[in-house]
């Protein structure tokens, strides 16, 4: 065994909703032995399936099946899976999809940076731009989402929507998720905010063999909801930066318009330009108020971080696995 690798427990969580045709294929493809891992367990989070998903998962070798009577959505299901895996004592958690589009034999590659202590979170890069089997609307929607997330976080995120990911135990404990749509963007933003080491690795993404995506019924609605999640989480994590930016724009515009008013005032008097003075005053006032709001929001953000630290300590004591 190479230096730096330690014996760890790996739990693979698979959120599933009516995936009886593919869930067995996914489970059977998961490696039974991985260097540096002493125990591999499979946890199925059955999100209100009405077919034989849970039954087939059990027959195919799933170690744990946690179910809900109604469909709660991917974000809730992922959060529940993360908490259950921690409670079961996972040192490393891999999340994968139940539709058999990810190649589960790549799990050893996915967790390697965590085993070697080079990362706390690893994202499988589907190399979306090269995929010929992905619909153009989804392809460019994914590319746009990753670009937008990279722009507002200042980090080069290649595939923000990938569901094939690995987390260290410490990283999983530090997430405080509230999105009701999807966890993918929220976990990235929180990981960046908490200065986690993130590694992105190219992975295989196969054509879907059975059915259609249940997360993206309408691509434009999905983009809208994803942007809402991104903006809300960024605003929560970086309020002063956002409010200061918006306030500065308003303040600078007000100053420029005020300078214009002064120019005409000294050239030919203020006659006919009083509206510029009013507009300048409004914009400057809005700018100052916005920055003050940012300062207040930053104080709330500091309080949030204190609460998260307390929650992390409670989680460390509460999860029976460690």
Order of helices and strands: EHEHEHEHEHEHHEHHH
CATH topology type of the largest domain: Spore Coat Polysaccharide Biosynthesis Protein SpsA, Chain A
Number of helices: 10
Outline the biggest β-sheet: 7 strands, mixed
How much strand content do the residues show? 5-15%
| Secondary structure: helix percent | 40-55%
The geometry reads as elongated
CATH class of the largest domain: Alpha Beta
Give the total of beta strands. Answer: 7
**pLDDT < 50 stretches:** none
Instruction: Supply the CATH superfamily name of the largest domain.
Output: Spore Coat Polysaccharide Biosynthesis Protein SpsA, Chain A
Account of the 3D structure:
Helix content is 52%, strand content 13%. With 322 residues, it is of the alpha/beta class. It folds into two domains: 8-236, Spore Coat Polysaccharide Biosynthesis Protein SpsA, Chain A (Alpha-Beta Complex); 239-318. It has a seven-stranded mixed β-sheet with strand order 3-2-1-4-6-5-7, sandwiched between helices. Helix 2 (53-60) links the parallel strand 2 and strand 3. The radius of gyration is 24 Å and the shape is elongated. The mean pLDDT is 87.
Key descriptive features of the protein:
322 residues, Spore Coat Polysaccharide Biosynthesis Protein SpsA, Chain A, 7 strands, 2 domains, 10 helices, alpha/beta
Short description:
With 322 residues, this protein is an alpha/beta fold. The protein is 52% helix and 13% strand. The radius of gyration is 24 Å and the shape is elongated.
Describe the secondary structure blueprint for this structure.
Layout: E1 8-16, H1 23-29, E2 37-47, H2 53-60, E3 64-68, H3 74-87, E4 92-95, H4 107-115, E5 121-125, H5 136-153, E6 165-168, H6 169-174, H7 184-193, E7 198-202, H8 219-237, H9 239-268, H10 274-318
Parallel strand pairs: 1-2, 1-4, 2-3, 5-7
Antiparallel strand pairs: 4-6, 5-6
């Amino acid at each position: 065994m190479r230096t730096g690798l330690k014996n760890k427990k790996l739990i693979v969580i698979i959120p599933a909703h009516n995936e009886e045709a593919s869930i067995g294929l996914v489970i059977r493809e998961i490696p039974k032995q991985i260097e540096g891992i002493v125990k591999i367990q499979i946890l199925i989070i059955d999100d209100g399936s009405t077919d034989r998903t849970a039954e087939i998962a059990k027959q195919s070798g799933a170690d744990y099946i946690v179910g809900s009577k109604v469909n709660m959505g991917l974000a809730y299901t992922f959060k529940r899976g993360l908490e259950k895996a921690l409670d079961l004592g996972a040192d490393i958690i891999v999340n994968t999809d139940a539709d058999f589009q990810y190649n589960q034999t790549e799990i050893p590659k996915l967790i390697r940076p965590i085993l070697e202590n080079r990362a706390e979170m690893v994202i499988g890069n589907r190399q979306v731009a090269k995929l010929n089997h992905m619909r153009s609307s989804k392809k460019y929607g994914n590319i746009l989402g990753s670009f937008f997330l990279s722009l507002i976080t200042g980090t080069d995120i290649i595939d923000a929507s990938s569901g094939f990911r690995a987390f260290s135990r410490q990283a999983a404990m530090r997430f405080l998720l509230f999105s009701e749509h999807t966890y993918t963007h929220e976990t990235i933003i929180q990981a960046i905010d908490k200065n986690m080491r993130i590694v992105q690795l190219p992975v295989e993404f196969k054509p879907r063999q059975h059915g259609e995506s249940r997360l993206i019924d309408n691509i434009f609605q999905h983009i809208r909801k994803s942007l809402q999640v991104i903006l809300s989480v960024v605003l929560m994590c970086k309020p002063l930066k956002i409010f200061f930016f918006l306030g500065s724009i308003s303040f600078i515009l007000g100053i420029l318009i005020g300078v214009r008013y002064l120019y005409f005032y000294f050239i030919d008097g203020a006659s006919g330009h009083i509206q510029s003075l009013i507009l300048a005053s409004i914009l400057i006032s809005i700018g100052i108020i916005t920055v003050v709001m940012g300062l207040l929001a930053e104080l709330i953000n500091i309080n949030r971080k204190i609460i998260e630290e307390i929650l992390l300590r409670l989680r460390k004591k509460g999860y029976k696995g460690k």
